[in-house]
Amino acid sequence: MLQTQPVIESDFEAMLALRIEALRESLERLGRFNPDVARARLRAQFRPEWMLHLVQGAERVGYFTVEPQADALHLHHLYLRPAAQGQGIGSWVIEQVKARARQAQLPITLGALRESRANDFYRRHGFELVEVRDFDNQYRWLPERLAAGAAA
Predict the structure, then answer these.
(1) Which residue numbers in the chain have pLDDT < 50?
(2) What span, in angstroms and rounded, lies between the C-alpha atoms of 42 and 3?
């Protein structure tokens, strides 16, 4: 059974360790793994009020962050321990965020590290590549009503 739990400031170190565990392979493949950079990036984006732990049984298996913006919901983080990947947890999170976006009639935006398997995951879930940057790909998903209006 999957549950979410709120994040508090004292969770930072455990969340950093989980983030490093989740990203290490992709970052090493790009020659960009650096624990100090990982710490600085998470610290700069650490907003507990936007973050939720993903808990399976009694174990924290991941977390995600949704930043509400004026014109979008931005999915900053969706990290799962490698052992928890491929079990539908990420898909469950995406459906939760999509439901929130539909209710607010806002798009979802996110960035994914280039060369990461996450790119295939987001495309499978209907996210459209909108920009390629040096190290990241930027994606967007539109709720049905917004997508219909954009197509018209």
Answers:
(1) none
(2) 23
